[in-house]
Amino acid sequence: MKKIRRRSLRQNNWDQGMAGYLFLLPALVSLLVFLIGPILYAFYISFFHFSFLDPQNKKFAGLSNYIHLFSDPEFLRALGNTSLYTIVVVPVQTAIALFLALIVNNIRGKTFFRVAYYLPTVTSTVAVSVMFMFIFEPDGILNKLLANFGIHGPNYFNSPTFALPAIMTMAVWSSVGQFMIIYLAGLQDIPEEVYEAAELDGARGWNLLRYVTIPLLRRTTFLNVVMSMIGTFQVFDQVYVVSGGNGGPLDSTLSVVLDIFNKGFKTMQMGYASAMAFVLFGIILILTLLQNLFLGKEED
């Protein structure tokens, strides 16, 4: 009798387990077909001279695609532009997001300000890019405002000096709300007792922020910095719209992802473009691990 019960229990557990896997099957299949499969195939063709126009005549290239990257002036320029873009945007974005979160967390009408600051984040990047193109036109809003002070503004998006900083400004404005919301969640997770204890010890104002709030937001800051860094290294939409897809003027707005797109779909060097994509992945992975080393661990 006990053996029959055990068999029945095992059969029920097996049936329940199989039912669970069947429910997961559609998601697993779509993940394999549309994500894991293409990633593995892209890694495979990164070792070939490959074009989708003539896939049967691919030629094995070994590591030559990866080696050529570091002598390709376009890729090096794109990597330099993207690195500069990341170095400027990430800290500015993080600092402004923290500043806004501190303000919004302590004023009335929090919901209104949360929505107002978060709205640009959910707005189409193409729409935001077109709006900023109007703002930064030679006779746009910004130059008209500067003209009131006797300043003659440049043609921003047609200037190698000002094109990338203008895109940086657009990126900060359009995405700072997302990181502000994350900081707000982190601030509301800090117990009030911690602030009360710190105030009893004489902490006030800046000292309270420096020695209590910022250290307790360490993990939140790590999350924001990593997400911001990944987003900036993958910048594509803004530079494509502003430059018309060529990274101009004089490659001053050429990003790594835009260069990958041009190599893969314009010049049909899909193997080379795949190698560029995996090098970009390696750079982001290394930088994320380094940030985890310095920001990701809680202090004792």
From TrEMBL:
Gene3D superfamilies given in the database record: MetI-like
Top-level taxon of the source organism: Bacteria
Signal peptide range in chain numbering: none
The coiled-coil segments of this chain are none
What is the membrane topology listed in the Swiss-Prot or TrEMBL record? Multi-pass membrane protein
Q: Any idea where the ABC transmembrane type-1 domain is?
A: 79-291
> What keyword terms does UniProt attach to this protein?
Cell membrane, Membrane, Transmembrane, Transmembrane helix, Transport
The entry's localization annotation reads: Cell membrane
Task: Give the transmembrane ranges.
Answer: 21-44, 84-104, 116-136, 162-185, 272-294
Principal localisation = membrane
InterPro entries in the cross-refs: ABC_transporter_permease, MetI-like, MetI-like_sf
Family, according to the entry, reads as follows:
Belongs to the binding-protein-dependent transport system permease family.
Tell me which PANTHER family the record gives: ABC TRANSPORTER PERMEASE PROTEIN (PTHR30193), INNER MEMBRANE ABC TRANSPORTER PERMEASE PROTEIN YCJO (PTHR30193:SF37)
- The protein here is known as Sugar ABC transporter permease
Query: Source species, please?
Result: Heyndrickxia acidicola
Phylogenetic lineage? Bacteria, Bacillati, Bacillota, Bacilli, Bacillales
